[in-house]
Write a structure and sequence with these properties.
Bound molecules: fe (ii) ion
CATH class of the largest domain: Mainly Alpha
CATH architecture of the largest domain: Orthogonal Bundle
Number of helices: 21
Oligomer: single chain
Number of domains: 2
Distance between the termini: 36 Å
Number of strands: 5
Radius of gyration: 22 Å
CATH topology of the largest domain: Hypothetical protein af1432
Helix content: 55-70%
Strand content: 5-15%
Structural class: alpha/beta
Largest sheet: 5 strands, parallel
Length: 404
């Protein structure tokens, strides 16, 4: 049974929720409190799995409560149920909450949304992972430039130039965003050299995601390790992001799925950065073992940490409240779906791009792609991957690096 905690300063609203959610009493154990302070007390005392909070509250605001829950109870699923039209509050909570619901909201919507947010958490509910994460000292919060960009993007009539101006405030960030933009647009006639063009070609939403990716890479700067190179990982990530997007395109996925494939591809190995930053000696040793013994990186990681970079990376993105499809891509990037119907997805695009980027491909996956009629496309993707690695059409030279 899920334990769900509702917080709203208006008793009337809580009464309404109680009545509306009464039919769910056999599925959820629910508690209703009127302040952030009471909510934190309850969270200390017992294991709530989901928090649903209002934003505008006296004493402790919903944003403050969410931030406290992120640091004290990171495993709790965080949701907002608010009627606030205040943009700033909404923006600030967007990176703290996994889901955002607007009042009034019916029981079916609340149930479905809690269910969705909860299912990903269940996948990440692994004791070894939890222990590892709780020991991390370098777990950066959501970058401030990203928050500023979200604020700008909330206004409906924002121009590409205005978005570009925000990105340009950070030169290092601009360079990284342009580099990623060029890898996404592999094959267009010319290179993109200024942020305004990047916004025009990719759209402001994609640029926002790129800022987040670039921030993740700058947030983790592991000291130089002998058996792990952050530079090579960045090159690999760019190549996988770009290729995953092209694969998604050739699978005729929706525009949103193309974006997920690209961003998911860029971030798929972010867990490696997290491990290398927080446990440099142990990670270096694991990677030494992987390369000298010829075992997959993820197997060496399991032997050392009890979990892999896929789970660790997905957990970080879950904490950052990134869209669930991206977190799921990262979590599953080593798997090929057992169900042939699931092949047409951004997750598979990233899986295939990663496998090709590493120069290897699981024969079962080849058989599966062939069985669903994608055998011919695979040859084309292999060509694209080789071209990416040779640096044609992109200004980075990619190598197969991450032993997955
Ligand atoms: Fe990987
Ligand atoms: Fe990889």
């Amino acid at each position: 049974m899920k334990r769900v905690l509702f917080v709203d300063d208006e008793p009337r609203v809580l009464d309404g929720l109680k009545r509306m959610l009464y039919p769910l009493r056999n599925e959820w154990r629910m508690a209703f409190v009127t302040s952030g302070r009471e909510a934190l007390e309850l969270l200390e005392q017992s294991d709530y799995e989901v928090l649903v909070t209002d934003l505008r509250m006296p004493e402790m605001s919903g944003v403050e409560l969410l931030a406290k829950v992120v640091s004290r109870h990171p495993q709790v699923v965080r949701m907002v149920l608010s009627g606030t039209a205040d943009q700033e509050i909404a923006v600030r909570s967007a990176t703290l909450a996994h889901q955002y619901l607007v009042k009034p909201c019916d029981a079916a919507t609340i149930r479905a949304t809690v269910g969705r947010a909860f299912s990903l958490r269940v996948m990440l509910d692994d004791p070894a992972l939890k222990q590892l994460i709780s020991g991390l000292h370098n777990l950066p919060s959501v970058p401030s430039l990203y928050l500023r960009l979200m604020e700008v993007l909330r206004s409906l009539d924002v121009s590409p130039k205005e978005v570009a101006e925000v990105v340009s405030q950070d030169i290092g960030m601009t360079a990284k965003v342009l580099q990623m933009a060029n890898s996404a647009l592999f094959g267009i006639q010319r290179q993109i050299t200024d942020p305004t063009q990047a916004v025009i070609y990719l759209g402001p939403e994609m640029v926002r995601q790129l800022v987040l990716v670039a921030s993740a890479f700058s947030a983790f700067q592991p000291k130089s390790l002998r058996h792990f190179s952050i530079e090579r990982l960045q090159i690999h990530s760019l190549a996988v992001g770009g290729l995953a997007r092209r694969i998604a395109q050739s699978l005729e996925l929706s525009p949103a799925a193309l974006d997920y494939a690209f961003v998911g591809g860029l971030l798929h190995d972010v867990g490696k950065l997290l491990l290398a930053c927080n446990y440099p000696e142990r990670y270096d040793e694991a990677m030494r073992h992987a390369s000298e013994e010829g075992v997959l990186d993820r197997i060496a990681e399991v032997q050392t940490f009890g979990t892999t970079h896929a789970e660790v990376g997905a957990y970080l993105l879950w904490l950052w409240a990134l869209p669930d499809p991206i977190t799921e891509i990262v979590l599953r990037h080593h798997e090929f779906p057992a169900d042939p119907a699931a092949v047409y997805s951004p997750s598979v695009a990233v899986h295939v791009a990663d496998a090709l980027g590493n120069g290897g491909f699981d024969p079962d996956a080849v058989a599966c792609l062939t069985a669903v009629g994608l055998g011919e496309k695979l040859a084309g993707w292999q060509r694209s991957s080789r071209e990416t690695r040779l640096g044609r059409g992109s200004h980075v030279e990619a190598h197969p690096v991450c032993g997955r």
